[in-house]
């Protein structure tokens, strides 16, 4: 039997001997109510309780109508006896008789609530209690109705204040320790504490003559009245958001408690929280065995009170109490997690950041102090994984506490879009409609009906959820294997990401940095590529050989035409071939593509495709970003092929020099553009519309003279008109309809006007990325980093990450001269150097520290220029005789290397 369960059973024996069960007809000779039990002092009752526990003697069913016995000086109290049980449970289980000494320092404060009168009328609901130590048949009512005391113990701000005052006067904090242990070790006692009505104990005690259903109905009416007053502005607080705890009073109580020296109560407080966690864990397991639903109100309320404790961030709590609480919280049913997220978002906004910092500190400390091996991974550490699971509840609370857009703004699934049978991509779309693969959707997000795409502005920045120590330690190959295992389990009918025994941080990607998540995507892509190679090999054996690579042969002078024609043929034949490893060959040039040629291919094709003269995209002059040409003469297939190019770049781990506004990445991930997206799309227009929304005077019609007909320019400079509503030129914008005008205007610019072009573009993108965990791992702003690279350009990071070969070291003179020259170059020349060495001038996700550059010695002093193997990020540098000569040769090499000089 577990320690906590054993303690509860011994406690029941103790109360049975000292107070009785309350049944006048009791015949148990070891029960005070029967009249057969000897009169025992508390110390004697403690010894006998242990004996009864070892013998597994029968226990009476409790009745509330009991009269507690008075305490004699120097005796153990029930509460102090319970707090001492942890030292004797093991010996009791092994039949070794160990009794707590009467001289032990076991003190407790006075009773916290009035004694229940013996003539108080009882109801059916009052006579039934449960204990975690009894059989499953006792678990028929609320799982936490485990109070074995004759008195309901609870705390309020006033009670705690009175206890503290008494302790200060007597210069003894034993009463405080006892009170904290009594209340914070019992879920039911904590559930009755710090309620919004301080003068009343539990509502069930106020209405002894009412049935449980009638009490709940009355409580609901009271809550509605309170909510109407508290919320105001006609807003009624929903049932899922309601919290009976007086948060303001609770925080004041904790603040006053913090003024007491921690040494006076810390040990008792930590022990109480550990006992609380054990109790909840046992009751959750029992409810699971019985098939009964748990009391969500109690679960949520207890964890709200506990996580409000400001001392949780101290090392004493981080090492013991917080990990145990996180472990129990991670076991909460999905409905309780959802409720906790909503309550946190509504009632605990000021506390969210503190809770996050405590959880991050717990994870970081466990990572730093942990010893991980090839057999024991960070995913196997229960404290880390449990804290991460609780952090996910906090993550969704953070979304709810911030500014959210309507779920209706999510883009429709392209697989449901109508498409002609003679379309080039009809086969792909039809195949996708029949796909039964499980989607990467978070169950908690579905329960709350929110998505990270709905978050316009989170309450806490997303970047604060990253844990860099964890991201540096986690082995993504192992984590990806766990992810695939859980996904396969979900395909067999299990809840995705929740039932698999193997933990994967990919289901909790908010805690990983973008650079680490990129590795998860990399492993997914590479496994698919290797799979295609194996299939090709097997087909070769049986006599039907296929090409294991996506091979493109293009001419430099006709790179757009050749690339699009070949991709069109491949996509028309079998879109799955796009998931093979890309191999590019420039016609008339020798060389094997090990990655460097592909980088140059993407660089050249992007430069030409996004040239405004090509006519598919237009340049926004103010933001210098590219946007879809609404009057483009190109077919849908052309835009689809551009989406394929973008997807291939991600699939083949290539950074592109593209400049889209953020709304493009939001739309790619499935979120429609809104008025707020105009800020980085067209700042002047955004400012004008914002001033319209902020205008509060009645002269709006005369001030703006704006109707529901708008005008805009196409790519050729022609002015076009569009009515946002029927007869829009006759409807003026006023205070009543200004919000509607702004929404319609934004929707037209960002969605309706480019609907045809963008859907084709997104369809091509998803033809490559549809089966990857891209949507699971990355938010829109992280997808921008994935495609365009990091905006940070720090050559110091590159120098620290560079390795040397062929006899060079970081102390070699020519290497010192090399970096002095590089740091002195202008930014444009530094980008050219990066292009020369790697085939791309873009910075990888995570910064230049993630780029492994190698500088190798290429002979003695000569007039040759430096060369580079872009496939392997290697610079071949002759050992020049002087710094001046090095500077001259290096500048020439990086300025005249396009098309030749790179291998």
Describe it.
By secondary structure, the protein is mainly alpha-helical. It contains 36 helices and twelve strands. Strands 9-10-12-11 form a four-stranded mixed sheet, with helices on one face. The protein has a two-stranded antiparallel ribbon with strand order 1-2. Helix 1 (3-18) crosses helix 2, helix 5 (157-170) runs parallel beside helix 10 and helix 16 (349-369) runs antiparallel to helix 17. It is globular, with a radius of gyration of 35 Å. Residues 64-79, 86-150, 198-238, 420-424, 430-438, 492-500 and 899-903 have low confidence and may be disordered. Residues 574-903 form the HECT domain. GO terms for molecular function: ubiquitin protein ligase activity; zinc ion binding. One of its GO terms (biological process) is rhythmic process. It is an enzyme of class 2 (transferase).
Features:
903 residues; mainly alpha; four-stranded mixed β-sheet; two-stranded antiparallel ribbon; 48% helix; disordered C terminus; Ubiquitin-protein ligase E3A; proteasome; EC 2.3.2.26; zinc; metal-binding
Short description:
The chain has 903 residues and is mainly α. It is built from 36 helices and twelve strands.
SSE order and pairing:
Layout: H1 3-18, H2 42-55, H3 78-83, H4 89-93, H5 157-170, H6 174-184, H7 187-191, H8 203-206, H9 212-231, H10 247-258, H11 266-290, H12 296-307, H13 315-319, H14 321-329, H15 334-347, H16 349-369, H17 382-401, E1 403-404, H18 426-433, H19 443-448, E2 455-457, H20 468-473, H21 476-491, H22 514-541, E3 549-554, H23 559-573, E4 581-586, H24 596-609, E5 617-620, E6 625-628, H25 636-651, H26 662-669, H27 683-694, H28 700-704, E7 709-713, E8 719-723, H29 738-750, H30 755-769, H31 774-777, H32 780-788, H33 795-801, E9 803-805, H34 813-824, H35 827-838, E10 854-857, E11 867-869, E12 874-877, H36 883-895
Parallel strand pairs: 3-4, 9-10, 10-12
Antiparallel strand pairs: 1-2, 5-6, 7-8, 11-12
Helix pairs in contact: 1-2, 5-10, 6-11, 11-14, 12-15, 14-17, 15-16, 15-17, 16-17, 21-22, 25-30, 26-32, 35-36
